């Protein structure tokens, strides 16, 4: 690592999740060669500052340093790019591209559900991102609408998957143990909930839930408590919504299989969803309809799914329940809560005794989901205890522990710099912003009926009229025009029709014109003597000249009668 803290200026919080707070920040100087993206002074970026609990955990710091290269090399048009990783004092932060657009959770809440075609095409792009990361051996493990940002470009919206590697970073023995999972209850795959080995198939399960939620507005499994939701993932079958066409349901149902080996690979999922989108629109031709009806054949599983690596140094599975506070399983459950660290519902302790396994900071409280870390807990960093600062490696008392060496090196290189703030009284790291609390430049939410053009295509139970051809991916990292420092951020705009329907406006105009012409013709026919003339077989000019003759006769008569007087 190298001194990068002074390169960025935190400006305002964009949102807060379980693992940290995301800030809008500005680049002050060009970053060094170690960063994946050097950036330009004045450029705006997003910085996720990891929570103190994470930053002070030596396992996580080690993992942060070790996974740096993985996070930095993960590039795809549908993945939010990590530009740099910052280690400074007790600060751990990821510098990312700033995505100008809402996250999918917020978008769904504000604009309602997607049509089957639009949902298929959006999820296909998410599946593209997953396929690329799985090919690189990286499993996301926390797919959910809040982790999909909608980037606006050229009047269209592109889903951008974010928080890659965060679940992996957080999956430390200090925070989770072998029979806990990292994830969001509504989106957790059965094998994760149960503590079985996980593979990239957990992301495909998450994509299935996402697809379901996009079309129906809610995930397939819900419950009053997180534990109830987990049990449903394990044993309940998803119910088919009436609005989902057959081919799309085939895809959803395969993604939501309990057995991970029966789920399609992310690559096949993306391909299948595009076939479905083509085949369920009203403009589909017979070949496209037939292809969509046969989509099951495209959903082959991944022959070699990417495994989720074991957590190194995790203590014995049986020890976990000894440190978790009891009796929190009935806490109110918010399906859209932030990522949680919850124990599994099965395994050595099983689901039979749910009240003894959930930490008190369960999913009911998205801002405090980290379980408390009791003294002496395995993997916990204790400055006074073993492996803490000024402590020695127990294997070799003359040598510092390996994590100390790495961390010290990183901090030494950062020593000469400091994170700079706009105003010392406004130290953003000391503030405790609420999720989405401050977006000063954001326009106030307008009533829905005032901006109907911003809604996605309404949900319908019949095949959709949209004929969507996947938009060409923009040149993702083309340099953007620089904004001067402190320039107010332009208001975010949502596209009225993210999946554009070519010619729709023209069609509406034509129909309107035809209606006007028909009504005008009818009025002329009814209100003028036209039909009489037509009945008498008289031409238009004949009738006009008759009228003109009558008028001139009348004028002559008038003149002659006044002359006689
Ligand atoms: N790269 C980015 N550009 C712009 N906004 C971002 C970016 N990353 C995150 N945000 C915003 O910050 C919010 C919080 O992000 P964060 O990842 O911490 O939330 P989360 O996904 O709900 O949390 P978690 O997954 O840790 O529970 C997001 O919902 C989004 O609005």
UniProtKB/TrEMBL annotation:
GO molecular function: ATP binding; protein serine/threonine kinase activity
Gene3D superfamilies given in the database record: Transferase(Phosphotransferase) domain 1
CDD domains recorded: STKc_PknB_like
Region (Disordered): 338-498
UniProt keyword list: ATP-binding, Kinase, Nucleotide-binding, Serine/threonine-protein kinase, Transferase
Entry's EC annotation: 2.7.11.1
Keyword Chloroplast among UniProt keywords: no
PANTHER family tied to this protein: SERINE/THREONINE-PROTEIN KINASE NEK, SERINE_THREONINE-PROTEIN KINASE NEK2
Protein name as catalogued: non-specific serine/threonine protein kinase
């Amino acid at each position: 690592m190298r001194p990068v803290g002074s390169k960025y200026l935190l400006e305002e919080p964009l949102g807060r999740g379980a693992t940290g707070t995301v800030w809008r920040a500005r680049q002050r100087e060009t970053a060094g060669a170690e960063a994946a993206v050097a950036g330009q002074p004045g450029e705006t970026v997003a910085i996720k500052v990891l929570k103190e609990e994470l930053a002070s955990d030596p396992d996580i710091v080690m993992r942060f340093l070790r996974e740096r290269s993985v996070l930095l090399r993960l590039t795809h048009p549908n993945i939010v790019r990590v530009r740099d990783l910052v280690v400074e004092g007790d600060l751990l932060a990821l510098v990312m591209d700033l995505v100008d657009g809402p996250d999918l959770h917020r978008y769904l809440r504000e604009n309602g559900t997607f049509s089957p075609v639009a949902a298929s095409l959006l999820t296909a792009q998410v599946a593209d991102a997953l396929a690329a990361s799985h090919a690189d051996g990286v499993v996301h493990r926390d797919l959910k609408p809040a982790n999909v940002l909608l980037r606006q470009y050229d009047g269209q919206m592109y889903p951008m998957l974010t928080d890659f590697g965060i679940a992996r970073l957080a999956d430390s023995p200090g925070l989770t143990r072998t029979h806990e999972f990292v994830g969001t209850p509504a989106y957790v795959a059965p094998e994760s909930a149960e503590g079985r080995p996980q593979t990239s198939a957990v992301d495909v399960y998450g994509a299935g839930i996402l697809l379901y939620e996009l079309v129906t507005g809610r995930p397939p499994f819900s419950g009053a408590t997180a534990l109830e939701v987990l049990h449903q993932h394990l044993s309940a079958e998803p119910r088919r919504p009436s609005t989902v066409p057959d081919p799309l349901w085939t895809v959803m149902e395969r993604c939501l299989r309990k057995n991970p080996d029966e789920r399609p690979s992310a690559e096949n999922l993306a391909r299948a969803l595009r076939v479905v989108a083509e085949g369920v629109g009203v403009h589909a031709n017979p070949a496209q309809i037939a292809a969509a009806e046969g989509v099951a054949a495209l959903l082959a599983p991944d022959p070699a799914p990417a495994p989720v690596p074991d957590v190194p140094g995790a203590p014995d599975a049986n020890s976990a329940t000894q440190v978790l506070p009891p009796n929190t399983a009935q806490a109110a459950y918010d399906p859209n809560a932030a990522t949680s660290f919850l124990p599994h519902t099965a395994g050595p302790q099983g689901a039979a005794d749910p009240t003894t396994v959930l930490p008190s900071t369960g999913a009911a409280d998205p801002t405090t989901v980290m379980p408390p870390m009791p003294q002496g807990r395995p993997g916990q960093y204790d400055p006074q205890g073993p492996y803490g600062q000024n402590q020695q490696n127990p294997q070799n008392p003359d040598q510092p522990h390996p994590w100390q060496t790495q961390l010290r090196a990183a901090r030494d290189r950062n020593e000469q710099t400091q994170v700079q703030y706009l105003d010392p009284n406004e130290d953003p790291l000391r503030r405790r912003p609420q999720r989405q609390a401050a977006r000063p430049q954001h326009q106030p939410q307008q009533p829905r009926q005032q901006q109907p053009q911003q809604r996605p295509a309404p949900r319908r139970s019949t095949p959709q009229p949209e004929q969507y051809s996947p938009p060409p991916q923009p040149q993702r990292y083309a340099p953007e025009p620089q904004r001067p420092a402190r320039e107010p951020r332009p208001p975010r705009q949502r596209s009225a029709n993210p999946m554009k329907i070519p010619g729709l406006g023209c069609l509406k105009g034509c129909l309107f014109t035809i209606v006007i012409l028909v009504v005008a013709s009818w009025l002329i026919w009814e209100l003028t003597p036209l039909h009489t003339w037509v009945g008498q077989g008289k031409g238009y000019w004949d009738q006009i000249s008759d009228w003109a003759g009558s008028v001139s006769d009348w004028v002559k008569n008038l003149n002659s009668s006044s002359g006689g007087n």
